[in-house]
Design goal:
The protein has 153 residues and is α/β, with parallel strands linked by helices. The protein is 39% helix and 23% strand. The strands form 2 sheets. The chain has a 5-stranded mixed beta sheet. The protein has a two-stranded parallel sheet with strand order 1-2.
């Protein structure tokens, strides 16, 4: 079984993080103006507006730092060319008792189950890893559902 020790991003996930950085930078600019406007010399500690705006600024700086760290540490994954088995970056179509679902296997920064992006570290993602078309997997906690893998791309 293949193991992964780094953070991995799809090309689309990397672009979304870069767009998010641009959005944060725009907000930082706006908050900088708010901070300047709410500053009353000699009364910073007592000025609730100033303190609130300063907290916003610190949250934005923290978010920016985390995203930049993720981007610096990440390895970009491309859609696998070999679709014989499921791996990180694969899109998978599975069929359960009553439904057909499609998932993209990604790493933590891109997880969004409602949009079909699941982590290879999650119970569902881990059970799909290294499986082939036609294989059956059980996904779920106390109430498991059996799925058949229909397609890998």
């Amino acid at each position: 079984m293949q193991t992964y020790n780094n953070t991995y991003l799809t090309v689309g996930g990397l672009e979304k993080l870069k767009e998010h950085i641009q959005s944060i930078n725009k907000k930082r600019f706006e908050v900088g103006h708010e901070l300047h406007d709410s500053h009353e010399p000699g009364r910073r500690i007592e000025n609730g507006s100033y303190v609130s705006t300063l907290e916003k600024k610190l949250q934005l700086e923290n978010s920016l730092q985390n995203i930049n760290h993720t981007i610096q540490q990440a390895r970009v994954i491309k859609k696998p060319k070999d679709c014989n088995f499921i791996r990180l970056g694969s899109q998978v179509k599975i069929k359960g008792n009553k439904s057909v679902k499609t998932y993209m296997i990604v790493d933590s920064p891109e997880v969004n189950p409602s949009r079909g992006f699941i982590s290879y570290k999650s119970p569902a993602g881990a059970s799909l890893m290294n499986k082939r078309v036609g294989d059956r997997v059980e996904i779920g906690g106390q109430k498991t559902t059996r799925y058949t893998i229909l397609a890998i791309s």
